[in-house]
Amino acid sequence: MRRSASSEAHDPGFGVLDGGDAVGVRAERPGRPAEVDGVADYPHEVALSDRALLLEQLDLRTDCSRCTGLCCVALTLTRSADFAIDKPAGEPCPNLREDFGCAIHARLRSSGFPGCTAYDCLGAGQRVTAVVRAAHGGATWRDDPAAARDAFAALPVVTQVHELLWYLSEVLAHPDAAPVHDDVRTALDGTSPLADLAPADLLALDVDAVRRRVGPVIDRASALVRGAAAGRRPAATRERPSATRTRPSGTGTGTHAAPSTSRPAATVRRRLRPGADLVGAQLRGLDLTGADLRGALLLGADLRGADLAAVDLLGADLRGADVRGADLSRALFVLPAQVGAAQGDPATRLPAVLDHPSHWT
C-alpha cells in the first residue's frame, strides 16, 4: 500500500485536540510572510532559487545557536553504528557543555556519533526553546523541571510540523504542481501557526489529524510532478549509455554534462514502488525518473551515478546509501537528515536548498 503524507508512520504520543483544530493565536515573528486580510501572503509559486528565502521565513533552518541543546537531552540514544553510548530520553549527553554546545562537535564521526551529524530538526529546536522560555519566564530545561518536561515533549511535535512545512514549501517550487498551489498556500497558512502554540497546546495537538489535512495536497503534488517528468522522458529505452548526456541543473536553469544513465530492467522497475525493500539494491547508473520510492528502504543501496529526477523520497531510509555522483537535484521531498545519512561526494548533485555534508569527500 502506498504511504501517503497524511499517514506517515509517526507516533505522536500526545492527546487529541477535538477535531484536530489548533487553539491559540499565531505569534508574530520577524521574517514571517506578510498578511493580507489575515491570510499569510505566501507567493503563488516560488522559483527554485528563491525557495531558500521561504524556508528562512518559515524558520525551517536549524540554528543551534538559538537552541538549548534539546536534541542532546530529549532524545534516546542507543549504542549502535550511529551512537557510541546508550542514553535515555531526558538525560543530557555527557558531551553537552554548559553553554549548550557539543564538546566533540568537530570529531563526532570519529568519536562514534555519526548519527548526530546526520540529525536535523529543521529548526524545531530553536522554535521549542523560544516557546518554552516564553511560557516559563525565560527558564530553560536546566533551570526548571516544568520547562524541561514541556521542552522534551514538544520537540518531536514541532519537528513533525516543520517536516510538513518543508514539504509544502517545496511544492510551491514545482511549476508542474501549479494545480495545487492554491491549496498549498491554504495548508501553509493553517499549519505554520501550529509550531508557535504554547506548550500545553502543542502537547494536545493531534499531529495525525494535521497530516490527514495536509497530506493529500502533498500526495497530489507528487503525482503531478512525477507524471510530468515521466512524460518528458524519451520513450526509447537506452540499452547502452553514451559517454555523457545533458541534464537540467538543480535550480531549473542551465545544463551540465553528466554521466549517462540507462533505464532499469523490467525486473528492477517492478521493485520501484512505495515502501519497497531495496536494502543493498544495485541501482547504479540507472535513470529512475518519476519513480515513487516513498518510504522505501534504501539502506546501503548503490545509487552511484543514478538520476533521481522527480523521484519521491518522502520518508525513504537512505542510511548508508551510496549516492556518489548521483543526481538528486530534482528529487522530491528530500530532508537534510536523509542526505546526512547517505554517502556522497562532491559530484553528488543535491536540491539547491541543501548543502553537501562536511563528511562527504
Describe the protein's architecture and organization.
With 361 residues, the protein is mainly alpha-helical. The protein folds into 2 domains: 5-70 and 121-223, no CATH class; 242-361, no CATH class. The chain has helices at residues 51-57, 71-74, 114-118, 124-135, 145-171, 181-191, 199-204, 207-232, 266-269, 336-341, and strands spanning 35-36, 39-40, 244-248, 255-259. The strands form 2 sheets. Strands 1-2 form a two-stranded antiparallel sheet. Strands 3-4 form a two-stranded antiparallel ribbon. α5 runs parallel beside α8 (207-232). The longest helix is centred in the middle third of the chain and has 27 residues, at 145-171. It is globular and about 65 Å long.
Topology (SSEs and partners):
Elements: E1 35-36, E2 39-40, H1 51-57, H2 71-74, H3 114-118, H4 124-135, H5 145-171, H6 181-191, H7 199-204, H8 207-232, E3 244-248, E4 255-259, H9 266-269, H10 336-341
Antiparallel strand pairs: 1-2, 3-4
Per DSSP, the total helix count is 10
**How big a fraction of the residues is strand?**
under 5%
> Secondary-structure element order, as H and E?
EEHHHHHHHHEEHH
What is the SS-derived class? mainly alpha
CA-based gyration radius: 21 Å
Instruction: Let me know the largest β-sheet.
Output: 2 strands, antiparallel
Instruction: Name the shape in a single word.
Output: globular
Q: Tally the structural domains.
A: 2
Helix content, binned percent = 25-40%
> What's the average pLDDT?
84
- Major sheet: arrangement of strands: 1-2
First-to-last CA distance: 37 Å
- The poorly predicted ranges are 7-45, 237-257
- Tally of extended strands? 4
